């Protein structure tokens, strides 16, 4: 499969683009652009030595898509207008990522102090304490809006609003090349991720449907899969979305009796209990289960029994 589409070069992430790395895009045009600098330190340092970048664009604020912003100190850095406040005040990261909701504002303050320290002890399974958080959210030079069209010379790029994964999550469409970068609509076996406080299950689904309707020949995922033709991508996207229903069924099968949110979370249905020793993995589990329960209550699939208990219908 192609790794280059004219001036657009696909840069696979280290570790086969598995989290916490991602596939990046380099646009080698009159304006030299890097989209989502998460491919890895070695890979992106080599790119920096090869070419002087003018612009770094983040599809959204998550760690694996902004990790190496800091390497490109001579380039302008931009992100969508909905998430740009995260780069101006780090407490906004705490609010969107879920730390404030699950652990409170004091915990967020402690987290900010930890990421400021390059020698801080790392978490076992998540990048929560990585110093790159501090380095790569230190500035933002501009914002883009959904619907904007950018011209880099021979390359035109449309900014498509696709919220759900995050508040401002965006896909990058190159209509003249028949290529779209879909970032975390990534078709991984894990499934859709909407575990931040700003994540939304139904918005994620509707954003996927929006992308399906756009005429595009090739799709580039941010993780693992890489470049896919239209038929393979659309089939994979249907399977990807189906994982949401599979999670609902897991929760329903756990409700052999009325349970509290906490009791359901402690079963580790999404990530597995052994990973809960990492505060962020537990946070992601908690918020994912909470979103599913609220959604199933709203859809009439679960009973809200009061006293923080939910039960299966029938």
Largest sheet: 7 strands, mixed
Helix content: 25-40%
Distance between the termini: 50 Å
* CATH topology-level fold name of the largest domain: Metallo-beta-lactamase, Chain A
Low-confidence runs of at least 5 consecutive residues: none
Q: Can you tell me the CATH architecture of the largest domain?
A: 4-Layer Sandwich
Spell the H/E element sequence.
Answer: EEEEHEHEHHHHHEEEEEHEEHEHHEE
Give me the count of strands: 16
Q: Which quaternary structure do these chains form?
A: single chain
Calculate Rg over CA atoms: 20 Å
Notable features of this structure?
314 residues; Metallo-beta-lactamase, Chain A; six-stranded mixed beta sheet; 20% strand; globular
Provide the fold topology.
Blueprint: E1 4-5, E2 8-11, E3 24-28, E4 32-35, H1 41-50, E5 55-58, H2 63-66, E6 76-80, H3 85-88, H4 91-97, H5 99-103, H6 105-115, H7 132-136, E7 142-144, E8 149-151, E9 156-161, E10 170-174, E11 179-183, H8 201-212, E12 218-221, E13 227-229, H9 230-254, E14 259-260, H10 261-265, H11 279-298, E15 302-306, E16 309-312
Parallel strand pairs: 4-5, 5-6, 6-7, 11-12
Antiparallel strand pairs: 1-2, 2-3, 3-4, 8-9, 9-10, 10-11, 12-13, 14-16, 15-16
In short:
The protein has helices spanning 41-50, 63-66, 85-88, 91-97, 99-103, 105-115, 132-136, 201-212, 230-254, 261-265, 279-298, and strands at residues 4-5, 8-11, 24-28, 32-35, 55-58, 76-80, 142-144, 149-151, 156-161, 170-174, 179-183, 218-221, 227-229, 259-260, 302-306, 309-312.
